[in-house]
Amino acid sequence: MEACGFTLCKNDVFLLEKDHAHIQIVSLDDLMMSVPDYDLIKREVSSDLFTLLLVHEPDAALELKTTPINLQLSGHTHGGQVQLPFYGPVLTAPYGRTYVEGLYGIDQHRIYVNRGLGTTRLPLRFLAKPELTFFTLTSRV
Q: Which pTM value belongs to this model?
């Protein structure tokens, strides 16, 4: 990815500025394959700025309940990949059991879990529609 010009965001906090508006971007490393630095996030996040958390696994929110994060964007779960009517997801991924798909809230912390386009393990989806989501962030100023 880096060879293609992408910046990998892992355990990082940086500021994005546009037209004199600021957004604090926070990222955590993968919970399953690496070591997320929760302490860095808790220490560095400013409550004075809109804070966007990027983390693959949505259940990272459970560790950051008291951290001033406005919006968390996650994936990982594929929306359960196989769902049953009146039951929901048949299997959920580790670190994706509490927040499986859609929008959730913990006080001021909003969590959006995208179902994505692909699959994992089983090459099929059932009642877990693929999803591509666009967000537009606007300043309140």
A: 0.90
